[in-house]
Amino acid sequence: MKKEIYKRIAALEGLTTYHYKVILLLLGGSEYTQVQMADMLGSSKQNINKVCQNLYHQDIVLKKRSEGRSVYWGINPKPSFQMVGQLKLEA
Question: Region 22-49: what's the mean pLDDT?
Fold first, then answer.
């Protein structure tokens, strides 16, 4: 990911501490399930699910693969920053 993308993520409005924790966790590793992220971050699976869905709709994270009912999440290397009510920013 380019350094310019980090600046754009930092400038996004409406992100909470857990949004940034999930982003940093996914930047540090390859891919994790919601249960793995909840255990590492000390949060509930429901909270991580809401955060991942929010970041997915903002095109920051991707659903990498599925095994049964488990979805593995990873960081999007080329996010488009398409958010509801905002203009698309080219990365």
Answer: 91
Between the alpha carbon of residue 27 and those of residues 68, 69, 84, 87, 88, the distances in Å are: 24, 23, 24, 25, 23
Nearest Cα residue to 9 out of 23, 21, 30, 22 = 23
d(CA 84, CA 69): 28
Element (H, E) at 57: helix 45-57
The count of other CB atoms within 10 Å of the CB of residue 28 is 9
Domains and CATH numbers, the chain: 3-75 (1.10.10.10)
* Res 83: pLDDT: 52
